[in-house]
Amino acid sequence: MTPTTTTLTTQSSSPTASSPTATASTLPVAPVSSDKMIVFEDVSKFYGEILGVNRVNLQIAPGITSLVGPNGSGKTTLMNLMTGLLKPTQGRISVLGTSPEEPEAMFQKLGYCSQFDSFPRGATAREFIEFYLHVHGYTKQETAELAHAALERVSLVEAADRKISSFSKGMRQRVRLAQSIAHNPSVLVLDEPLNGLDPMARAEIIRLFRSLADAGMYLIISSHILHEVDMMSDNVVLIHNGYVVAEGEVHGVRDEIEEHPIQILIRCDRPQILAARLFEHEHTVEARIHDDRNGLFVKTRRPDDFYLLLNKVITEQNLHVESVAPVDDDLNAVYQYLITSDGGQA
Amino acid sequence: MSLTTEIREPNAATDLKQPDMSRARATSWSLWTRQTLAIMRLEIKKNFLSRRALLLYLMAGLPLVLLSALALFPPPNDELENFSELSQVYAAIYGGLILRTLVFFGCAWVFMNLFRGEVVDRSLHYYFLAPVRREVLVVGKYLSGLIATVLLFSITTVGSVVILYFWRFPTESARYFFDGAGASQMLAYLGVTILACIGYGAVFLIVGLFFRNPIIPALLLYGWEWINFLLPPFLKKISVIHYLQSLVPVPMSEGPFAVLVEPTPAWISVPSLLLFTGIVLFLASLHIRRMEISYAGD
Prior knowledge:
heterodimer, A: alpha/beta, Rossmann fold, Alpha-Beta Plaits, 7-stranded mixed beta sheet, 4-stranded antiparallel beta sheet, B: mainly alpha, 12 helices
């Protein structure tokens, strides 16, 4: 997206989308040097006859840009295309003037924290990061310094010499993050980077992303949790069925979130008591007890206020809560809204 | 790890500037060399200094164990009692067991796993996300496999000779190796082993790249190499074993049904194998440049 984009604008639509107003347009290319932007030019990717992404035109400026869409919408495909792990069926991609066809140039500027949760067998966190810094061509001393700095950034120094196989999911996520930022790239691509992290670690990582973006980096982050996207992003790109359906500054999406209640599933004992208390909250739209009677679906227009209230009720009623998680269906409702109406149009 | 530990915020002035690293100053060739060496070190550590290498060590050690057992517990009507027969005995052991079976399967195990193993482990993308030319990756991985197999099977080749000859006939063997043809024969066997690792290594590297389940093509190749002695002269030459067999100092008897052809001279065999290896590595590089990673179905 160009820095001048100020509103959520609808892009090309999928052939199956029912929006009468969605146009098969391409993003007007702003007169900005492609050496300073990440550019997707009419990029398509097909897996045989299956669509990955289609006719994507984007210009991404510094800051945090979130790729948002339901599972299978094409977010990871877009990231893998950008990093050369996949080749486009057609179109051109440029990352600050370099092409994924020239990894030796591009990956000096780019780090990718993918979703592949795998590591070389038997490696410690430090060894893992150092292995691949050596492959960059750094000397032993440079490698040691860069690896240590990266581990420090993600708070893994104390665990650095433990085998990764003994790590929790959240720690493994941090190791991969450290590996992707170790060579101080200008562009950081992160595929669902908050998956598996507990709330405190999420907050810390979001703060790290924010500070990296403030320092002038390009962060491209995929997520299917709109609430998190809202918290950290400067810009969003909404993807649905392989098509970029809307893009723009984050306040556009925030408006959509506020207009459309999100649904949250709370796994707990005594869901009836919880439901009764939550209905006291004016933004609670709906509360429905789960079929197994061990959970409660709640729809709310104000998730932040809702979570505060939930904490209060749990404490007051001494409820035993197993989990609290947004339910994807509601996110899909927002997407559907953007796809099938003028909602996303400025 | 404490979750309350603060994540250090980056310092724009220091963290984001590319440090004055020697990498930036390096010329292409010196950078490629450094990257190749880094890949080799990493591959050797991952593949040859780990439990995964156990089968390889067992294969390389098998002839040494068998020959030691034969020396310790000689069978009745022992053919190894006659010193003059030992070169024929070694030719049979080398051609039948070491070259055609152990070096073949050892190379299959090592070289097919260089890329295939990483796809199965879902770790190949880390290389693809590094600023390294994919050709350099192919060369680095190939050389790491080559170093490991050459080292191990050279020990097998020389160790087998030493055990076979010196265990029972130390005096005659010393004379044979230091004053006779023994040393040159042993070096010739060693050379064939190295060439076998070079040739089979390239073949199995590309097999591992092209086939999702490379076991079947490896077994088909094994069959093809074994029936080589039955093939007509033209087909014999479409194999690695034909050129290797032409170079061994004492030919192995191939039985009454063998189709006899003149061995290919060394000045053709050696460059042919090296040229073949170069072509295969070039094809592997082309393939790896276009390779995509999704790990789906792997």
